[in-house]
């Protein structure tokens, strides 16, 4: 074996190395992917930065545009300034010229003036000449006179010219003043323009400087970022290169391992065969061990099951096999004769019920009292353990007892929206059985019968109201069976509904008035639960009998005749028989009169042995029903203390003495003490039945 395991060891190591390399490679691959992802993220960041820088560039271009505009404006201004300067120079030049002209004119004028003055002086010096001339005039007077006149005229003309020249001078002076003013104005304007220009230039320079700074900063930042990113990328690249270098030897070892594995795979079939043979041997051995352990477990399980059943029986024995509940129905709409406090409950003890008429207060103690507000669900909660015990193989009977109108049918069947015990029990059985499904295989069958006038009728059969007989099983087991009784196997809640509908329909069509008829007959729903344990083969069979009894009310002697009288007798007989059977069971009589009525006979196997019985006594809250309520409760209270014995083996009576006893014979046989001579067959005896028990 060790020689065979050798190659498998080395193969294992090879595989481990390979796996390690593979893991390394996978990790490496992951890292490379991550780096690639990082580089992509970097590229994204750069593009993001670019997209961020774009508006800045735009702004820069705008600013440059503005600068250009301003520069052109400055140029225009300087051009204007130049023009103004030129204009001013021109004006100055004109001024100079005018001054010059004025000087010349002044000079001319002064020359002229001087000439004139000189002339005048000369003229003045001439009088002597004039005298002389006069004398001469006397000689040549006309000539001199003419000369004087000319001279005078000349002087006047010169005077005029002088004043004209003076006026011109004045005008030129004002002109000069004007041009001087204009020139100062222009100079001031030039100064203003220059100031403005300087300011604009300063602004422009500051703005340009800001922009330049911003541009530099942004460029620097981008550069730094790009540089660091580039550095990271370079590093990554170097890492990747390094990895690639390290991966190459790994790849080489992988290839080597692969070749090694390939060789091992070739050897594998032989190894496998060997291993399989070994494993088979081991498995066989283990299976042997497990099956013996299983056998042991099974033995223990069976022992535990028996113990459980014993414990359960013991528990039931301690608690009593018969439980008696009481349910008080609510006052229905339209009922007016209910009295306050006629029925009352104990707030601390739900087993007590008080009934009071005007005279006295009666106390009844039961196992549980349901007040009128109790819901169907609450009632079912109390009976569900009883229902499920039939899965464990117990036989169970649940009776609804009480006068007509006290709520028996409501409790057992319920209404469509709020079903009673029947439907809830079947549904619960279904869910319980489904829960046990892998280990247990259960079969649930349902029969429905009614007992009317001591006749058993099949409610699920094809023939309406088909009469049935109860017979002893010929196999000698002492078991009873009903030949021809229809049994439906139900597999789903839908099946349940169908069964109930069919039973209801058959019952309704077989009579003229269902309400009346149902109050005078017993309706039985018989559910059989049979199971097989798939691992142990252990079998169980339990039966759940849900009985809606006929009304327990007494009928006045005068009011009963003919068929009504017969009905009353039959109901009386069967309810008395039920009481008698319970009485005999409780007293552990060796003889239990099951055969005294169809009802008790049919239910004999569900009332005897370790069977369980629940009596739900229904009570009406109406004052008019007071005496019947008292009767029902007395019956209930007495039944409650009875136990079904499981110690004594009962003998099934089959003598003719009680095969079809009358009510009287019941009394004679089992009570010996009570006879009611005053109460003939016309009067139903349920109240007496209670006393007897
Ligand atoms: P029984 O079958 O005893 O003759 P029923 O079950 O027919 O009585 O009940 C008589 C009336 O009282 C029916 O209308 C029924 O709906 C009503 N009833 C009985 N018990 C209750 C209850 N607990 N809640 C509401 N109505 C009820
Ligand atoms: Mg009814």
UniProtKB/TrEMBL annotation:
It is a peripheral membrane protein. Keywords: ATP-binding, Cell junction, Coiled coil, Cytoplasm, Cytoplasmic vesicle, Cytoskeleton, Membrane, Microtubule, Motor protein, Nucleotide-binding, Phosphoprotein. The keyword NADP does not apply. Its main location: other. GO terms for biological process: microtubule-based movement. Residues 321-642 form the Kinesin motor domain. Residues 676-693 have a biased composition (Basic and acidic residues). Transmembrane segments: none annotated. Residues 672-693 are annotated as: Disordered. GO terms for molecular function: ATP binding; microtubule binding; microtubule motor activity. Residues 15-108, 155-221 form a coiled coil. ATP binds at residues 402-409. CDD domains: KISc_C_terminal. SMART domains: KISc. GO terms for cellular component: adherens junction; centrosome; cytoplasmic vesicle membrane; kinesin complex; microtubule. Minus-end microtubule-dependent motor protein. Involved in apically targeted transport. Required for zonula adherens maintenance. Belongs to the TRAFAC class myosin-kinesin ATPase superfamily. Kinesin family. This is Kinesin-like protein.
